[in-house]
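Dear colleague,

As promised, here are the two records you asked about, laid out in our usual form so they can be pasted straight into your sheet.

NAME FIELD: protein one
SEQUENCE, THEN STRUCTURE:
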Amino acid sequence: MRLDSRAVHAGREPRARDPLAPPIVQTSVYVFDDLEDYDAVADGRRPGHLYARNSNENVAMLEAAVADLEGAEAGLATASGMAAISAAVSTFAPRPAPVVAAADTYGSTLGLLRQDLAPLGYELRVVDTGDLEAVERALTGAALLLCETITNPLCRVTDLEAICRLGAAHGVPVLVDNTFASPLLCRPLEAGAAAVVHSATKYIGGHSDLVAGVLVGDRALVERARARVIRNGACLGPFEAWLAVRGLRTLHLRMRRHSDNALCLARHLDGRPGVRVVHHPLLENSPYFEVASRLLPHGSGGMFALDLAGGREAVQTMLRRLRLVRFAASLGGVETTVSYPDLTSHRSLPPEERLARGITPGTVRISTGLEDPEDLRRI
């Protein structure tokens, strides 16, 4: 099946007399006939589930669906996107080792690497992934390179093909956060990535009503990560998994509208009085236009950012004037929202570091929703 059809059907094949919509299996534990029955399921000799921290029908459905869409052998669903990133990093680097991270990495991911892993002996190497020579130098002796398809909040596009070639040449696996693009717009495994993570809270769920994460990759990697999640308890509940699968069924439709609306609104705002710059990778004047056109031929999703010339005061004035659009710290829902990275996604970074990465007091991140584009022009 083509990708759109797979989004509708991935993860489940109803049999005769099954309910068309998957039921929610809201249980923490399962029952067994005898010791041999339990032992066979625990060993994997029979299908089944033991305990919700290990697995569940709804969770398994989400894992299979996202793995299918990403072209991966297996998937692991977790309690949040950060739990998926943590599981992935600790699986690739189970002992202290150098970890290379893109300079534009999500603030909470950098916080995990700096505040939780560095004190354990991990070495963090932050590098501009647009500088391939710097990336190559940083890869020497590294256990992992972590980057994002589209960065948060400035929507810079990573040349995944070039980065993965360097990783392969140095024997360093590349882990890609594909949250902003979703598997409908980009499939990093095809570019050579070793694994992919998503905050399913965002576009996969799509309705701002759940928190979840997914890691996909080869089966051996995913099962090692699963063992860690079972031990540390970062598992996903069945209801959140059910919501995420429900959202996934319309992902192909939503991502087209998100992409179209975002580009339309970015073009509308580009060059307006008080707008210093609009950060959208598919604007013709973007420094990322070439790589975005190559890696994201079907659109770049609903995210973009802008810098207001008047700084924080101008942002506050804009927020007071908004009618249709609301200020919210997350993204990827059906409603258009704005966020302020200085206070939300990147507040853990020092002000000078935010400025060095292009995040100014006037930076506003926009998560474009599914409204009529003419209404968005009058926000």
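NAME FIELD: protein two
SEQUENCE, THEN STRUCTURE:
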Amino acid sequence: MSNYLEIAKIFEENAKAVDFFENTEVLSLKSSLTNILDKETKQLIFLIGEPGVGKSAFLNNIEELLENRYSIIKFDTPFMEPVDFIKTLIKKREREIKDFSLEGLIKEVVEIYKDDKCLIAIDEAQLLSKKMIELIRILADSKAFWFLLAMHKHESKEILNEPQFSSRPHKVLELGKLQKYECKDFIYNTLSKADMNSLAEELSKKYLGFIYKVTKGNFRDLKKLLYNLFLLIDYAITNDKKKYKKLSDCLLIMAAIEGGLIDA
């Protein structure tokens, strides 16, 4: 296995090798969220952003970002039934379920959590069912929970306009894209940690303009481009394709085409 294949795996989607990248947008979001949690009453918080900007990564690291000051219960997928959702919350506190009716379960879970600093984070919240939206409204009204609902920006307007949410206290926080210098920092720091300093220098300087142009500051697309780039170099080395063994404009264009970032 070549070094380039190992490097490619660092940038693979959902790879654990890449450290969480706290860019300016993340730090701003962390500050705004902390301020709301510290100073305002329990309510709904909506985290919106374009697909690929890092909403899921933010939720995956939220306990550390909030310095473990809050009890975090995170749901990675929103495909839940109200009864099962509440049962899960009750079981998280190792309490016995006393009433299996929805009304009884709601009363029980509110009683358990009413004095707790609990934040329920739900990823891909644009996919929540009508029944779950109504349940979240009821639980939010109880003031027993904070809810952080992460969703795609272009799909958030419909949910935010739901009467269950629009008529109640809520906050909307947005996670934006990487700045050009942040793309440079991410490339340089990640490759340097993998002992690829010369490659880090070349990519983050000579080819940064092209990289930022095709990825448009989208973190997922940036990792996708780098993943495909290093796979191509690995293939060239393994199959003795001399023309493609080193970084070039051609290789980057091929990687961008492979990732669907530009048309062939």
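A couple of things worth noting about protein two: The first helix runs from residue 3 to 10. The domain at 24-174 is CATH 3.40.50.300 (Rossmann fold).

Best,
R.
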